[in-house]
Amino acid sequence: MPARLAGILASLAPKKNDGPHGGRRGTWRRATLGGGVCGVAWQLHQAVLDTRETYLALLGLAALLLLLAQVWRPAWRPGLIVGLLAGSLAGFGITGVRAVQFAADALNPQLQGTDIQVTGRVASLPQRSAQGERFEFLVEAAQWRGEPVRLPPRLQLNWYGGVDAAGEGGWSLSAGSPGLRAGERWRFNVRLRSPHGLANPHGFDRELWLWERGIQATGHVRGGARDAVPERLDGSPWHSLDAVRQALGERIDSRLGDDPRSAGVIAALVVGDQSAIDRADWDLFRTTGVAHLMSISGLHVTMFAWLATVLVAAGWRRLARPWPAALHAVPTPLAAGVGGVALAAAYALFSGWGVPSQRTLIMLAVVVA
Predict the structure, then answer these.
(1) What is the mean pLDDT of the chain?
(2) pTM
(3) Rg of the chain on CA atoms, in Å
(4) How deeply is 14 buried, as exposed, middle or buried, from its count of CB atoms within 10 A (0-12, 13-18, 19+)?
(5) Is residue 296 very low, low, confident or very high in pLDDT (cuts 50, 70, 90)?
(6) Does the pLDDT of residue 304 top 90, yes or no?
(7) 125 — phi, psi (to 5°)?
């Protein structure tokens, strides 16, 4: 470990081919990036959050240190210290501000398990099953006992397809889900609770998974005799990306209606709808070790970018034949690289914009740049 740390510090030292100020600037800038990573890790290990003002003050101190470093241009050793300190404070402050905001949007414990009327929009592809539909919902307004209340901005809801006759006076679910469309606006009653997950070591952490998606409450739609009838307020807008994804998935399913298993796999790879794959097929994929290939990841985005780069390069050469000046203005490698990354970004966005796809796009952009 000491040898590795010494190697990192040596890499920050100025090089022979650095300019009069290039080595100094490079030192504190690289140290700032490293300090930022340390600051984020530091904040994630906080057991109790500080106040928002504390994090904002640390951000201001980090900005002041960076401004002084830009003007002062310290030597590499002082620059290393200034960069690490400023980066750590900035990473700690930014992550803390976001954590405070996220905590402020949590579900009020008083509202858990009660009927709440919500108005909002379907914000994901509805996942259909034998029990009903599951979808994400963006809240625009909410009322509890006739009074407006604040809810987490993003919910995960289930609209069950059966009726639960739990006894005299028991709660009941909606008699049937209506076939939701992504982008539709609805008003209905829901019952919510804060996310809870299992704590098994090395197992799936559902609470963390929901946290990554910005979901701070889960629940189900109420549609019993004592509940207000769910009301569709507005259809899916034409510019809704999720609506286009849903329509394409349904088109794939209709064209391959005689082979639903293949339709599910193709829909998963094209629009990122893994719910279209049958459970028996998932078991087969896990057994054969190829389940990860059914989820859009960096591998899929990279392969798409490579193919797009080849096609853009061929098209650019063909287009430049009548206009040779275009090749001098924008060389083929540059046009192919930019076009490949742009098309890969469109594919990543169309397939769900997952975190692996975002990381891959950043990597591809760095390579092209």
Answers:
(1) 83
(2) 0.74
(3) 26
(4) middle
(5) confident
(6) yes
(7) -75, 120
Beta bridge partners of residue 218, listed in sequence order: 156, 193
Measure the CA–CA gap between 10 and 14, rounded to whole angstroms. Answer: 9
Please name the amino acid found at residue 346. A
Which backbone phi and psi does 132 adopt, to 5 degrees?
145, -140
For 236, list phi and psi in degrees, rounded to 5: -75, 125
In the chain, the amino acid numbered 43 is: Q
Q: Which two tokens stand for residue 68?
A: 């002084």
Q: What are the b/e assignments for 317-343, b being 16+ CB within 10 Å?
A: eeebeeeeebeeeeeeeebbbbbbbbb
Torsion of CA 37, 73, 70, 367, to 10 degrees: -50
CB atoms closer than 10 angstroms to residue 260: 14
- Measuring CA to CA, how many Å separate 101 from each of 51, 206, 208? 10, 21, 17
What fold, for 109-234?
Answer: OB fold (Dihydrolipoamide Acetyltransferase, E2P) (2.40.50)
Retrieve residue 6's tokens: 């010494």
Task: List the chain domain ranges.
Answer: 2-104, 109-234, 241-294, 298-368
